[in-house]
Amino acid sequence: MAYGRIEQEAIAKVEALTLRVLAERLENGEKLGEPFTNRGFSP
Asked: What is the model's pLDDT at position 27?
């Protein structure tokens, strides 16, 4: 879970965490799968 003082701050933290998780998976040679490759962020 990510918290922020305002909604936009919380959203930014969640997006950053998501990108870190995806980057780690790519670095470890894992495939992301269709849901991750065909969709963007929509807060």
From this structure: 95
AA identity, residue 34: E
pLDDT tens-digit readout, 6-25: 999 989 999 999 899 999 99
19 phi-psi bin (left φ>0, alpha ψ -120 to 50, beta other):
alpha
Q: What burial class does residue 29 get, using C-beta atoms within 10 Å of its C-beta: 0-12 exposed, 13-18 middle, 19+ buried?
A: exposed
Radius of gyration of the chain (CA): 12
Kindly give, in sequence order, each residue whose CB lies less than 8 Å from that of residue 14, ignoring residues fewer than 6 positions away: 2
